[in-house]
């Protein structure tokens, strides 16, 4: 059983404000962390273009959104340092490893499986609905927006991607910050995330839309914007976790007093 606090309906905006304040306090650490993943994303995009699979770039970018919560665990050391009254430094990210690495790895594997499922679904849809789709970016976009098969591919692919994104969000909304901050297992962290989404759907739907908008906006500017929006969303997620303050209730066996 996991207990959560009730948060205000406008809480997502407060989380973004708090995350931005963290960036202002430690711009080199936070933006530097974001640039690492911008560089990795740029290499993937260049690689796909080099082998003639530029049309797979949108799938890769949407896949990044699925696994991004797992990639953000290092940035949580910034607000933790601020809470302790310390000056955030990049060495905190690489030296202060969470004690629950195995549980974080398990949850990361679940997100990776979602990403691989999305890749397989995208491949299936491409073959089943639009086998004649051109792979170059310009012709692909023209085909997707003008041909009925291309339009079907876009609509169905977007709908399925949205469902997978919703599952990933529900799994990770609070889970990774909780695993970094508390000595709990992955199942408990997953329960906390799902309970927050189910218990306060308006708040979490608003938060999900804000995340989607910020990640899309960051990706639109040749991925450079992700250097800011990625750590910003991650830091705001930490403040969302703090706002909900999930607390795992002791089990009946552990709370029962020993018999005389």
Automatic annotation (TrEMBL):
Coiled-coil regions listed: none
UniProt-listed Pfam families: DUF2189 (PF09955)
Keywords, ordered alphabetically: Membrane, Transmembrane, Transmembrane helix
Classification lineage: Bacteria, Pseudomonadati, Pseudomonadota, Alphaproteobacteria, Maricaulales
Protein's name in the database: DUF2189 domain-containing protein
Lineage: superkingdom: Bacteria
InterPro entries documented for this protein: DUF2189
Annotated TM spans: 31-53, 59-82, 103-129, 149-174, 186-203, 209-235
